[in-house]
Amino acid sequence: MKKKTIAMLLLSAMLAGALGTAACAEETGDIQLSVFWWGSQTRNERTQQILDMYAEENPGITFDGQFSADYWPRLATLSAGHMMPDVVQMDYTYITQYAENNLLVDLTPYIEDGTIDVSNVSEDILNTGKVGDGLYAICNGINAPSLLYNKTLLDEAGIEIHDQMTLDEFLDVCREVYEKTGYKTSLSYGGNTNRDFLAYLLRGQGKELFNGEEFGVESAEDFVQFFSIFETGIQEGWHVDPSTYVERTRGQVEQDCLVYGSSPETMSWCGFYHSNQLVAMQAAAPEGTDIAMTTFPSDNPQVSNYLKPSQFFSISVDSEHPDEAAKLIDYITNSVECNNVLLGERGVPISSVVSEAITENLTPDEQEVVTYINDVVTPNSTQVDPPTPTNSSEVFTLLDTLTEQVLYGQLSAEEAAQQLYDQGSAYLAS
């Protein structure tokens, strides 16, 4: 029997088993909701805990919690076969794509009938889940780009970090840390913040990465600065060798060079993340290591800085129980008990009542995140860019590929910039 045939039989058996389980649940009167998310082990554990709490408080509701480090490829595959889970974690980058492809439920009716209570949510925050005339997602929390760094290491080396570093100041720190400690720098190549760092640098120059369905820049020259940072880091020796990432899952906190590695040669003094990930990074750090946070560097950080929805929760059009899914989203948004478990791991809660209620239960790291949002970023920021266009995922895949080729010395910064502009423009126009 051919391998393909065997694979199809196995897949059929798995699907049959899943359908059988669902059928049994329906026969007993239970409703099983599938929930899909990405993130750290800390998020995994806390999310599973609140689902267990909800099930206990709501007899007849059970959950199939699904956590994935390879989230977006898996979700794309599920959406293509119209087998998406009931509730999916959604990102600002992809919300337009999924909504315009009719894969998400418009939540407006659930807002209007009170199923999802948004009376204590800022309208600006609520509107981040809008695409066209519909509201397709509810924000989980607010966060901001943040450079996480090993404060213990830098204190021992006598190196101080200040907020709102310019790009030149940051590069000087990269060189100084490498010279004094041997620890290298891991730029945004390590995760989804690669695209965020590019947009952040452009914002500091008064430009936007996208303008509608096109690039918002005039030429490939506008992309050179981004790729030049990687090129310089490799040439001067202070950037982590790209081979270090080969056996790691990029974007996974526990495998980040900031907290994982056997020697300074394979470790970094910093990592490009978002503010809500400080807690998970600190939990993954070796004992005795203090992880701190500051702003991304750019030519003008005060203009580059922005507040953004950390993630959203959406209901898929494949859900057979959208009403129950909406009630779960309301629980996550408005339950103080629920958020005393989550404790802002996905970002500062969007309900002002919930945010205030959980403050006294926050750990010092969690309080640091709130302080960072309120005192460091909010007074020194501008409006977040609009959601990325429909075909942006192809552009971001290209961006990662070109970044890797620059790190391996296969392309110059100028060549990578030109390819991103030319090929990316073609993707956006298709």
From TrEMBL:
UniProt cross-references to InterPro entries, sorted A to Z: Bact_solute-bd_prot1 (IPR050490), SBP (IPR006059)
Signal peptide: 1-25
Superkingdom of origin: Bacteria
Keywords per UniProt: Signal
Keyword check for Iron-sulfur: no
Pfam family name, one: SBP_bac_1
Keyword flag Ion transport: no
Name of the featured protein: Carbohydrate ABC transporter substrate-binding protein
Naturally occurring in which organism (per UniProt): Candidatus Limivivens intestinipullorum
